[in-house]
């Protein structure tokens, strides 16, 4: 936006804290595979029972592809598809249900994942793989569905996913392999494509394969496999990917369906008013879309709980910023964005969380994010309440500034530009709400739909 130009506005003296290091850094390049690992980590933290499921499935699918001699591009697509295959399973109940070997309504989360993946251009190639990853082979009838070819990669992913759920991680793995192979053989030709199953059975004779699959460092094992896949995102690509992430974060709950969009737009605009460079304003937008990434580790049953939370439940919700910090921190290129995102619940007086930072130990951009987060949260409409009026919102923000929770200078800057910033927030959230409404209608209709390939998934 045009006001994100450091020379356009006089920077207030009270806001003359040093700008983030990103403004002086070299051109940003972020690995698409690394970012996909981030989202898979976040989604799998929702329960100890499913930690690293996406990574294990990705590793198995990749290994089968190598055994089959598939091209490097197909191997990469299977890794990405494996890392993201269950992103359409939005609730903890949905995720746990996917661990049943025989699935009912499996087309629903596969169709939702397909729809989500198609919102980001770099994932267009893997969307069809995810769409059909629970489609059975059915003696060759699974080669196509409703006249459309089904990718071989979908059948590979289907088998990899089922192998992953058959493993009991509480038991020594090699003692399970014969039983797993027997189960898979019983479904040859019915559930699983014979060629794909034979490759998996051959692979399963090698002990290292099983040790890799159950390794506590499966992320490291998988990272070694993707080193040769060099798809990188520039800043514009990172912006688009961060918006994709925000849909996965926010669309889990109707209560927060547009929150990240409002925070991102407000933070970007407020950063411009505070004198940050255009590039840093864009990075603030990315940080805003990612700031609640750790909420994927919080069951949405808590996010949507109508009554007050118990103290243990509040503690679980509080953990989301810690998870944001750890997950984004795994991508070295996002070090600066991580601090801007993950410190948005810190307070100047040291009473915030989870790091209890005080005063100048909180980066200036993190203080912008904190103001944008509170402003968006109190002014946006939620299904259970309307957003605050201008008068009430400003009274709340000034109160927090007076308590030294929020940066007083930034609250003053927001107050002076309230109408403009609120209009920007409203427009961003109107767009996000429209996207969520379409997604929600699709979700509701899918519960009454047939298997993948129905009109809703087209």
Could you estimate the helical fraction of the residues in percent? 55-70%
Structural class based on helices, strands and sheet pairing: mainly alpha
Estimate the global geometry from the Cα principal axes.
elongated
Largest sheet: 2 strands, antiparallel
- Helix count equals 21
Radius of gyration: 23 Å
Give the end-to-end Cα distance, rounded to a whole number of Å. Answer: 35 Å
Measured by DSSP, the beta-strand proportion falls in under 5%
Mean pLDDT value: 88
Please trace the helix and strand order, writing H or E for each element: EHHHHHHEEHHHHHEHHHHHHHHHH
Neighbour order of strands in the largest sheet: 1-4
Low-pLDDT residue spans: 5-25, 447-458
Number of strands: 4
Name a few traits of the molecule.
458 residues; two-stranded antiparallel sheet; 56% helix
Could you characterize the architecture of this molecule?
This protein is an all-alpha fold and 458 residues long. Helix content is 56%, strand content 2%. Helix 19 runs antiparallel to helix 20. The longest helix is centred in the C-terminal third of the chain and has 29 residues. The chain starts with 29 loop residues before the first strand and ends in a 12-residue tail after the last helix.
């Amino acid at each position: 936006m045009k006001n994100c130009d450091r020379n356009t506005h006089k920077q207030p003296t009270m806001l003359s804290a040093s700008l983030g290091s990103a403004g002086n850094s070299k051109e940003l390049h972020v690995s698409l595979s690394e970012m996909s690992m981030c989202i898979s980590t976040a989604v799998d933290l929702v329960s100890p029972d499913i930690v690293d499921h996406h990574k294990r499935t990705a590793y198995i699918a990749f290994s089968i592809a190598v055994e089959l001699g598939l091209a490097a591009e197909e191997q990469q697509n299977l890794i990405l598809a494996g890392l993201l295959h269950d992103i359409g399973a939005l609730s903890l109940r949905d995720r746990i249900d996917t661990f049943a070997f025989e699935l009912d309504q499996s087309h629903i989360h596969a169709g939702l994942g397909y729809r989500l993946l198609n919102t980001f251009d770099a994932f267009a190639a893997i969307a069809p793989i995810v769409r059909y990853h629970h489609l059975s082979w059915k003696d060759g009838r699974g080669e196509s569905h409703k006249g459309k070819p089904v990718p071989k990669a979908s059948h590979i992913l289907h088998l990899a996913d089922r192998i992953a759920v058959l493993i009991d991680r509480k038991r020594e793995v090699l003692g399970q392999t014969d039983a797993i192979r027997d189960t898979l053989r019983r479904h040859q030709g019915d559930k699983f494509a014979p060629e794909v199953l034979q490759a998996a059975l051959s692979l399963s004779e090698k002990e290292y394969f099983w040790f890799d699959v159950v390794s506590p460092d499966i992320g490291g094992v998988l990272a070694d496999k993707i080193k040769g896949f060099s798809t990188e995102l520039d800043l514009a690509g990172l912006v688009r990917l961060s918006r994709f992430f925000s849909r996965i974060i926010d669309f889990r709950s109707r209560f927060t369906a547009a929150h990240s969009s409002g925070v991102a737009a407000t933070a970007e605009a407020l950063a411009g008013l505070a004198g940050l460079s255009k590039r840093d304003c864009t990075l603030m937008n990315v940080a805003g879309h990612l700031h609640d990434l750790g909420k994927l580790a919080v069951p949405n049953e808590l996010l949507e709980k109508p009554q007050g939370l118990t103290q243990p439940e509040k503690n679980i919700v509080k953990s989301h910023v810690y998870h944001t910090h750890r997950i984004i921190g795994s991508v070295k290129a996002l070090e600066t964005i991580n601090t801007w995102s993950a410190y948005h619940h810190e307070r100047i007086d040291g009473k915030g969380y989870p790091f209890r930072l005080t005063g100048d130990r909180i980066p200036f951009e993190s203080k912008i994010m904190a103001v944008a987060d509170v402003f968006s949260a109190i002014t946006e409409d939620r299904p259970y309440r309307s957003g605050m009026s201008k008068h009430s919102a400003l009274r709340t923000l000034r109160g927090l500034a007076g308590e030294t929770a929020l940066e007083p200078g930034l609250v003053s800057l927001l107050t002076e530009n309230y109408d403009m910033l609120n209009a920007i927030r409203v427009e961003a959230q109107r767009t996000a709400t429209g996207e969520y409404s379409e997604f929600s209608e699709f979700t509701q209709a899918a519960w009454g739909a047939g298997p993948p390939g129905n009109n809703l998934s087209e």
